[in-house]
Amino acid sequence: MANFKITNSTSLEKASHKSGNKKRLFTGGRKLNSTVSFSTGFTVLFFIAAIIFAEVSYIYIHNKTQVGLSGNSQIPSPSTVTVNSSTTAELKPPPVAAAASSPEEIASLNLPIPFTSQAPTANWDYLHNEACEEASAIMANAYLTGDKDEVIPSARVETEISGLTVWQDSAFGYHFDTTAEETAQMIRGFYGLKATVQTGYTLQDIKDQLNLHHVVILPVNGRLINNPNYKKPGPIYHMLVIRGYNAAGLITNDAGTRNGKNYPYTFNTLYSAGADWDHSINSIDQAKIIIIVSK
């Protein structure tokens, strides 16, 4: 385009020489030539500016994409974050909580629960033959109220058996063969202790309660636990106190014999013999149930 205009200017100059107006047209040619040069320079500058603008725009858009919508000109590294224009704070991984150390499992435990036979004076009449529920309640209360006697004095036991039978006669209308729930009611009503019944239990359940210094009373079919101290065939319905455990099994206070202090049974023996009294059939069922007594 520039060459075309320059050639045209020369033609104009020649024409002006022939017409006698050389000076005027030549001067006009110089102005035209100067205009062409300016136009060419402006086009070049505009083209260069367009290139620079395009390059700057590309860099800006590229950085904007990397930084994201935050508009920060610097992308935080995984280990730092910008707090303000002059401060950076190090991002540290959250502290790992130390693994909670579980308490060391107790290998054995034997609570100092005072013992009594259900016939403390060796009078195995009908009342005392049926007094295992009362004797178990008496032992639980003695322990939970801080009695330090290893064996509860027989006179006190007799007094408490009498008081418990009177309470049951008033509450239930009878005092023989009370269920686990009725026995728990008797303990709550007569002694003011907490007594709850748990149906279904494991060895660990019993250990857990003993570890809390609670007393566990267990109803069983006495003829299935094979205690050689019982008069044959043994009581069909019986309750005993579990006071501890060790590697061999459970440690009990079995009121059904004068030799029942710290009497050992395996867990399987007692669990298999588990029973509760059922008034509807006037006999026992095979319920697996325990009474948990606490303050």
Summarize the structure.
This protein has 295 residues and is α+β, with helices and mostly antiparallel strands.
Explain how this protein is built:
The model is unreliable at 1-36, 67-94 and 96-103 (pLDDT under 50). Helix content is 43%, strand content 16%. It has helices spanning 2-19, 22-67, 126-129, 132-144, 154-171, 180-191, 203-211, 267-272, and strands at residues 80-82, 88-90, 109-110, 194-199, 215-220, 238-246, 249-253, 263-265, 277-278, 283-284, 289-294. The termini are far apart. A hairpin with a 5-residue loop joins β1 and β2 (88-90). α1 packs antiparallel against α2 and α4 crosses α6 (180-191). Strands 3, 4, 5, 6, 7, 8 and 11 form a seven-stranded antiparallel beta sheet that branches. The protein has two domains: 2-75; 109-294, Cysteine proteinases (Cathepsin B, Chain A, Alpha-Beta Complex), CATH 3.90.70.10. With 295 residues, the protein is of the alpha+beta class.
Properties at a glance:
295 residues, alpha+beta, Cathepsin B, Chain A, 2 domains, seven-stranded antiparallel sheet, two-stranded antiparallel sheet, 8 helices, 43% helix, elongated, disordered N terminus
